[in-house]
Amino acid sequence: MTTTTTDQRALALTGISGLDDILVGGLTRERIYLVEGTPGTGKTTLGLGFLLNGATAGETGIYFSLAETRVELLAVAESHGWSLAAINLVEMLPADGLGDDQEQTLLHPSEVELGETVREIMAKVDEIRPTRVVIDSLSELRLLSQTPVRYRRQILALKHFFASRQCTVLLLDDKSASESDLQLQSIAHGVIMLEQTLSGFGAQRRRVYVVKMRGVRFRGGYHDFEIERGGLRVYPRLVAAEHGDSYDDTPLSTGSDHLDSLLGGGLVPGTATLLSGPAGVGKTTATVQAMVAGLRAGAKASYFLFDERLPTLLKRSTSLGMALEPFVDAGMLAIRAIDPAELSPGAFVGAVRDAVERSGATIVVIDSLNAYLHSMPNEQFLVLQMHELLSYLGQKGVVTMLILGLHGVTGNVRTEVDISYLADTVMQLRYFEAQGEVRQAISVIKTRTTRHERTIREFQITEQGLLVGETLRDVHGVLTGVPTFSGRGSTLMRRGEEADAAPAGTR
Fold first, then answer.
1. Mapping DSSP to helix (H, G, I), strand (E, B) and coil, where does residue 57 land?
2. If phi over 0 gives left and psi between -120 and 50 gives alpha, with beta otherwise, what is residue 215?
3. Which of 51-55, 110-114, 352-356, 493-497 has the lowest average pLDDT?
4. Bridge pairing between strands 301-305 and 363-367
5. At what angle do helices 379-395 and 345-357 cross, to 10 degrees?
6. Residue 108 clears pLDDT 70, i.e. is over it
7. Burial of 83 (0-12, 13-18, 19+ CB in 10 A)
8. Which of 144, 196, 248, 376 sits CB 3.0–4.6 Å from 114 for a disulfide?
9. Which of 10-24, 166-180, 209-223, 473-487 is predicted least confidently?
10. What is the pLDDT of residue 488?
11. What is the SS3 assignment for 298?
12. Where exactly does CATH 3.40.50.300 map onto the chain?
């Protein structure tokens, strides 16, 4: 994506890397921009960060506050670990209750006409000669204007004044005007909208989108963001087509010869493998075994844990001969326990991108998609975001493993949403009953990259990991959840019997 009328030298960085990415580099200098959002969406934090970023680059900034006091602004800065010493703070508040020993400039917009207030702003700008200006907020000017015509004329006067002073200006507005009032949006060179919504449970979701930005092919649509210590963190909407690398497509072993045979040779880089099955059938164990085999081969992995507690995963993996702590200590494996109620979908995508682009992970595990689904507003968003995420991981040459839990144990086993068509490989794990025992079977339904084995094999979870046996030829109806056993047990695995050439825990 490129700008059409500007170049990189003419851009003013906002200091928020994700927002600058959405804006294709930053804001065109010497223009006036409108930042709209209801109270609490982060407008003040964005404005202060914009001025501080300019101060770091040696640019003079001035912050006109029409609603908040200097003490309140300093408290906001302190919460982010900022010092505002490099910023000129100008309070435009009534003088009532303020002592004579206050050092800040005091203006009185509530006691004068709008025109006089605007002239005071101009005078202060001519005195300080700033490069960046923030006016917070325009609701006070709107109240003084009395009529829309007069309000628009004064804003236009400010626009022409700032253009002649080579200022880049952010106008913050709390959207107190009616929704049909688009005067500011038509005057501004660009409009950035901040939103905050509440879900039925969990933290609030904050989103930003660019309404317009003249002369720039900005990244449209909604982008999640969070207010963290240090300012806003914006997660640009992922567009998979913008990413792509060359990579080695040699299949990775799963740590089991028989499982590799089922897959047609192993896990192919650039593909996503979906492991589906009822609770407790062994989906996580199979995934961890394949991941550990990749780690032992020198790959790096990132595990996103939604369902299980991290200590439980570590303890269980160790008991199965697949200890994960050594890989974590060596920096080869990163495990992140995620609370879906506290993490926005954009933040999750950002975490996956960081794992791939910054940490060099070539194996990514999402355990499980069920919890990820619950973190989304509704199901179609999950499918769209997951499609884009899997396309991105595929173009990066990442081996992706997705775990999907199914409702029920036998019979009518179902899922909340069918995303099997998004995966390149689908592996099904099922329970079946034979000779008075509950047993487990594994099969590969499809692969898009290799010619896979179309058999159903029994497997066991032992202290040596996941052991895969021979083909089940005397059991029918395993995948339906209502199997029929017609043999004498000669093809069934004995408890603890090693069916593979070597167990996963010794590879």
1. coil
2. left
3. 110-114
4. parallel
5. 10
6. no
7. exposed
8. 144
9. 473-487
10. 58
11. coil
12. 8-237, 257-497
- Choose among 415, 410, 423, 409: nearest CA to 483: 410
Residues of the chain by 3-state class (helix, strand, coil), percent to 5: 30, 25, 40
User: What does DSSP say about strands 32-37 and 168-173: parallel, antiparallel, or unpaired?
Assistant: parallel
DSSP 267: B
d(CA 233, CA 501): 50
Residues composing the chain: 507
Between CA 376 and CA 291 the distance in angstroms is 27
Q: Which parts of 358-503 fold into alpha helices (H)?
A: 369-374, 379-395
3-state secondary structure of 21: helix
Cα–Cα distance for residue pair 405/428, rounded to 1 Å: 11
469 vs 2, 255, 259, 453, 463, CA distance in Å? 56, 14, 9, 14, 16
Rounded to whole angstroms, how far apart are CA atoms 174 and 389? 34
Q: Is residue 502 over pLDDT 50?
A: no
Integer Cα distance of 383 and 122 in angstroms? 51
Contact 62, 131 (CB under 8 A): no
What one-character-per-residue DSSP string does 149-172 give? HHHHHHHHHHHHHHHHTT-EEEEE
Per-residue pLDDT at 268 exceeds 70: yes
Architecture of domain 8-237: 3-Layer(aba) Sandwich (3.40)
Write out the two tokens for 105. 């400039």
Contact 25, 1 (CB under 8 A): no
- Return the closest-CA partner of residue 300 out of 424, 425, 399: 399
- CA proximity to 468, closest of 453, 448, 483: 453
Q: Which residues pair with 471 in a beta bridge?
A: 457
Q: How far apart are CA 476 and CA 484, in angstroms?
A: 5
CA atoms of 109 and 267, how far apart (whole Å): 67
Is residue 429 within 8 A of residue 283, CB to CB? The reply is yes
Tell me: pLDDT of 106 over 60. Answer: no
Fold classification of 257-497 is: Rossmann fold (3.40.50)
Q: Is 485 helix (H, G, I), strand (E, B) or coil?
A: strand
CB 335 within 8 A of CB 305: yes
